[in-house]
Every structure is written in C-alpha cells, then in structure tokens.
Design a protein that fits this description.
The complex is a heterodimer. Chain A is an alpha/beta fold. Chain A has helices at 2-21, 33-37, 40-52, 63-71, 83-91, 124-134, 146-157, 162-165, 177-187, 195-200, 236-247, 249-256, and strands at residues 26-32, 55-61, 77-80, 95-111, 138-140, 170-172, 190-194, 207-211, 218-226, 259-260, 263-264, 267-268. Classes of the chains: A alpha/beta, B mainly alpha.
Amino acid sequence: MFNRRILLIAAAVVAFTAPAFAQEKSIVVASTTSTQDSGLFEYLLPLYKQKTGVTVKVISQGTGQALDTGRRGDADVVFVHARSAEEKFMAEGQGVKRYPVMYNDFVLIGPKSDPAGVKGFRDVGKAFTAIKDKQISFISRGDKSGTHIAELALWKASGIDIEKDKGAWYKAIGQGMGAALNIAGAGGGYVLSDRGTWLNFKNKGDLAILVEGDKRMFNQYGVMLVNPDKHPNVKKELGQQFIDYLVSSEGQNDIANYKINDTPLFYPNANDAGA
Amino acid sequence: MPAATSALHLVLTGDPALYTIVRLSLLVSLSAVLLAAGIGVPLGALLALTRFRGRTGAIVLLNALMGLPPVVVGLVVFMFLSRSGPLGSWGLLFTPPAMVIAQTILVTPIIAALSRQTIEDLWVEYRDELTAMSIGPVRRVTTLIWDARISLLTALLAGFGRAAAEVGAIMIVGGNIEGFTRTMTTAIALETSKGDLPLAIGLGVVLMIIVLLINALAWGARRAGERIAG
C-alpha cells in the first residue's frame, strides 16, 4: 500500500542516514560572525583537524548570541570579542577560564565621497559627532554583537546618548557584519567594522576605511570553555585541547600567518595576561 | 556575467565542498518530505473521509498551517532541542536530524492539506461505487490514496519546494556549520554576508537547476504512471 511503502522508505532513509550523521571526534564552538566572515576559521580549522583529528564545528553568531548559546549549554567553547560581556559570562559561573587570544582593531568605513567629512580623523569621537550632527546614514549592527557593543561604547565616549539622539539616519539592522557592510555600500552609509571582516569582504564597491588608529578602536578576542559543572554534556577535554592550541605558540603562529595581500587580519596576544 | 561563470565553474570542476552542500540539502529536504508524506497523506485522507464536530475548523487550521513561518518553526524546534530544553538530552541541536525535524513540521501541513483536497474530490466521484461495494473505512482510505497517488505526487513536490527553498528554520536549528549542516540556502546567506555576491547568485542558480531537475523527474514518473494506469 502507498502509505506503508512511504513509511518503509522513510524508515530506510533514517536508518541509512543515521550512521552518516554519527560523529567522529568533534566539538561545537560558538563564535562571532567576524571570525567566520574574515575567513580565519576556514584557514585555521583544517590545520587543527590535521594536527589533532578533531573536527571543530563553528556556529557563527554575534557575541551576545554566542554567549547565550554557551549559557544554554549548546556549545563546548565560546570564542568572542567583547570583554565586558565575557567578564559577565565568567561572573555568572558560565565559563571556566577566560583566555585572551588575539586582537585587531575596528575601522570606520564609509563612502569614498565622505559626506560627513571625517576622512583621516585620528579621533573617532569627532568622526561620530560629525556623522550625528550632519545626520548622515549610519548602519548599526543592532544585534548585541561585539562590534555593536564597541559601537555603543564609542558613541558614549563621544558624549552622545545614541538612544536619545538617534533619528532616521541611524539604522539598526540586527544582522551580521557582512550584511551591515552590504547595506552601507548600497545606501552610502557609514559603518563600524572589525578590520578582519573588512579585509576579506568582497563587495567593497564604493566603500573605504575613513577613520582608523584610535586606541579606543582596539578589538580583543577571548576564548572560554563552557562550564561542565553547569552543563555536563560539555566535552571538556576536547574543548580545553582546542583552547590550549589557540594560546600555544603553535596556534599563535598559525593565527599570525593568516594574511590577505600580506596584511595579517589578527595579531596573537595570548601572552598578554591583561588583554 | 560573473555569477553564471562562477556557478558553472563550481559545477564543472566538481568542487567537493559544493557537492557536500548539495548532498546534505537533498538528504535533509527529501527525508523531511518522505516523513511528512508518511504523516500528512493519512492525516489528509482521514480528514477527507470522516465527519466530526469541528471538522471545518480543523480544515481551516490545517490550510492556515501551510503558511507556517520557517523561522518560527526553527525557533520552537530550537527551544525543544536546546540542552536547556525538554529534549536537550537527545543532543540533536546543530545536527542534520534537527534540520529534518524542523522541515518535517513545515512540510506536513502542506502535504496534509493538499492530500485532503485531492482525496475529498476523489471521494465525491467514487462515493456511490465504494459504498455499494460495502468495504470498511480503512480499506476505503487505502483505496482512495492509491487511486490518487499520481495527484498526490504534486502535493509531495509542493512540500519539497517549500523545504528546499527555506533558510529560516535550518539556519537556527542547524547552525550553518561548514561541512556538517551547511545547505544550499544557508550557504547562499553566508556568501551574501561575506559580500561574495557572484558566488551567492551562482549557488542560487545551482539550487534552481536541482529543483528543476527533481520536478522534471517527478513529471516523467507521473507521465509513466498515467500510461501504466491507462
């Protein structure tokens, strides 16, 4: 009969696919869109697999969402970039230990025509003020990501209460870094990006870096094992092994060697305990 | 046109990453459609052939569920399968079976609603005949499903189209993990976010071609079926 046959086929499909889905050694890492969109993981993870045989499965989310994934116990390791949010995660007892891994910096991207006239500013606060005063389109991630948190801190440092002062010019899109760059490119807007994603971004069009080098645009990445006491399913040995690799001299070298057009995208700094 | 060239390049060079993605997309969506057919066709038949209080309401509800937003289904399945959810101990979140579950939920109402319509129309046509033969309700259902099998193929294809095209549900429950839960649609979303628009469009073209091929195959099977059925 027709429906019985379908059930049989379905059972066969499940039986056939189940072993294919069964896993070899693997861990789940919740990380940020910047580590994925910058291409770092595409470069680093095959190296790690070759060295250890462990498959690292990356869920790429904003920092806030990645930490929440860790809080629910759905990841073994979180690898993110917002120090304040990471410290909150640790204070809640969600992580075992926070390790600094690497840094790069944020850059202010905008149209080459630069309608806000900020090109070359050394003080990012002045650039933000000019964009606000002239009401030029600004694309905000608006997704609690590390970049979004950094952007909010920069508005605050510029003496601007963005919650109060935002108007139609300020567009919170709630999407990843690449999507924000696409929208800025299409609409002639300004956007704060991490340098790694920008360098790997292929749809630059009329966009360019307009402001860079301000100390406040520093972007530190940290990694933490999700606390196995809270979530017994966490693969603590395999997770810790991955963290140990990232902060080892070998892992740090691999990170430093990831370059686009001879420009490194990330600078390792696991030895800087204060980072 | 760079999009067409890059897509063509991927296909012709037999890019292994592309084939992993295509294979997973087909495996997930076809599994979901088969499971949904196993639930949806009998359910549709039941609704077509029985009379009970609230039946009209059930039919309206079923038809409305055809429009279930994938992202909502994804979120609900996510909450059930998360380690902090009721089914967390199954460890299925961010795996292909989780994607199959989400798509099955999306597709079942489509197949059930279309099956109900098909079988009810057929029932109107054959009612006197089947009643005269005085066969039991179970036999009646199976006979009608068998008779409607060729039309039911369209319901299955509609379900497959929905599953193959959606990105909202599998992105949430699968996590778009490279080589493991990355499908055609989530790969397109990712390449778009990396600004590689030609590759994204190229993948879209490949997806369209696959859907077209499957529909052509189903059409061929249907024609062959009609010939045999005379």
